[in-house]
Design brief:
Blueprint lengths: L1 H5 L5 E4 L5 H7 L2 E4 L9 H4 L1 H13 L4 E4 L1 H13 L4 E5 L11 H13 L5 E4 L2 H9 L8 E3 L21 E6 L8 H14 L3 E6 L12 H9 L4 E2 L7 H6 L2 E4 L8 H8 L4 E4 L4 H4 L6 E4 L4 H13 L2 H18 L2 H18 L1
Parallel strand pairs: 1-2, 3-4, 4-5, 5-6, 7-8, 7-10, 8-9, 10-11, 11-12
Helix pairs in contact: 4-5, 8-13, 11-14
Length: 350
């Protein structure tokens, strides 16, 4: 947004009000609040969002709209198409829609098929997601493009000097919902404790018990009280926590391009992640980390045991390789430049 403002664009932002909204207005954006429940997928209930976004779009009359995440991509595109306003969509990740085969997923896929005919451009954050949409004929070939995730600020997330903890420390950074592999992580930790591994196991991220797939508070409390994990709460700056960890873990079921892993790699930290789209686009097995099998606590435990047993030179090599990879492929500037180029082409065409 700062880059758009610097280019002379007038920027309006639309999102629910929260503790971070003031950053948008302070940067120079005109903010419009919207009621949107990010938890779960109910197309009938969520259709009210079309009316709300239509009202805002009709009032602002923007030249182009940039959508992010599932609901704005689908419902925002419907609202914009009714007003004949062009849009650029960003598929940050597929969520659980493509992980299940039920009525809701069928409706969601149908909505994608209908709405993704309209965007001028649809950015995907990994090649598998793009190919899946093309295979299912949900998006025209000429509008589908790739971005390196949300990009990473290489100056903000600088490499940490290597320092191995006396008790090897694993850190999972994520919202506490089951799709992120939280339960597999807990099961893996239990196995490693039984095996007597001298390590610390931490979780950093917001509790979200109201989410359809959120972990219940009493369950989280039981993990902490029994000493299975250390719960670190939430933070506005993860760098200090990443710096104190030996390895960042993300056993997620599927991602766009996970920011947690980009931050870890940029900070020169070894990683363990599931061998699924998004995660394996950042983590390369035995190069900057280790990959484990999806929903497999035993394999995750084995990979964590393997990571903790690696010598310092290998761990340092993993960290250096991760940093080099984000410098070459995942810089934030690449994302910004691609958006600016797309907008510039649109302006020329119009």
């Amino acid at each position: 947004m700062k880059a758009l403002l610097a280019e002379g664009y007038e920027v309006h932002t639309i999102a629910p009000m929260d503790d971070y909204t003031h950053y948008l207005t302070e940067a120079g954006c005109f903010h419009h609040k919207v009621r949107m429940d990010s938890r779960g997928a109910n197309p009938i209930k969520d259709s009210a969002l079309i009316v709300e976004l239509y009202s805002i779009y009709r009032k602002v009359r923007p030249d182009i709209i940039l959508h992010y995440t599932v609901k704005p991509n689908v419902y925002g595109t419907i609202a914009a198409s009714l007003l004949r306003i062009p849009v650029i969509n960003n598929v940050c990740g597929l969520g659980t829609v493509f992980l299940k085969n039920n009525l809701v997923s069928k409706i969601a896929i149908l909505l994608y098929k209908i709405t993704f005919r309209f965007p001028k451009k649809v950015f995907f954050q990994n090649p598998e997601d793009r190919q899946l949409f093309l295979d299912k004929k949900l998006v025209p070939v000429h509008t589908a493009d790739l971005l390196p995730g949300s990009g990473i600020d290489l100056e903000k997330f600088k490499p940490f000097e290597f320092n191995r903890n006396k008790s090897f420390t694993f850190l999972l950074i994520s919202r506490l919902i089951s799709d992120k592999g939280i339960l597999e992580y807990i099961e893996a930790v239990k196995k490693l404790r039984v095996q007597g591994l001298d390590a610390r196991f931490q979780i950093l991220g917001a509790k979200d018990p109201e989410h359809k797939r959120g972990i219940k508070l009493k369950v989280i409390d039981s993990w902490v009280k029994s000493g299975i994990i250390e719960y670190l709460g939430t933070t506005d700056d993860v760098r200090g926590y990443i710096g104190k960890a030996d390895c960042i873990v993300l056993p997620s079921y599927r991602e766009g391009t996970p920011r947690t892993l980009l931050e870890a790699a940029s900070s020169s930290k070894p990683m363990i992640a599931t061998d699924v789209p998004g995660c394996h686009n950042v983590v390369k097995h035995n190069i900057n980390g280790l990959l484990c099998q999806l929903k497999d606590a035993d394999d995750l435990a084995n990979k964590m045991q393997e990571m903790a047993s690696l010598d310092n030179e290998t761990l340092k090599s993993f960290g250096a390789n991760g940093r080099k990879r984000v410098e070459q492929e995942f810089s934030e500037s690449e994302v910004i430049n691609k958006y600016l180029k797309t907008l510039s082409n649109f302006k020329k065409a119009s």
